[in-house]
């Protein structure tokens, strides 16, 4: 990653709720050492209910739907829509438990992925 890319990612981290707790320096460290960007196509799943990803995500572009499948008719119920700066998967990341909801892109979207193995050394 070049310096401009690191600065762009650090700004996205700092502007997210996480930035309030780690500050600009922490955002810079995460951007340089732990962030991986992932692009999602329309309706592409970031993760599905029951999966364990050992990661959390920051939405940097587009919107993602948090969905629950209704057992009575197997249709999806959108519980919440995540937008730029929102976190996804943080509860499963902290608890090291499977995801309780599925998340997919509503149009093209981008996220920063932070894996537990990448963050531990920091």
TrEMBL record:
InterPro entries: cNMP-bd_dom, cNMP-bd_dom_sf, RmlC-like_jellyroll. The keyword Metal-binding does not apply. Keywords: Plasmid. The keyword Manganese does not apply. Residues 34-122 form the Cyclic nucleotide-binding domain. This is B protein. It comes from Rhodococcus opacus.
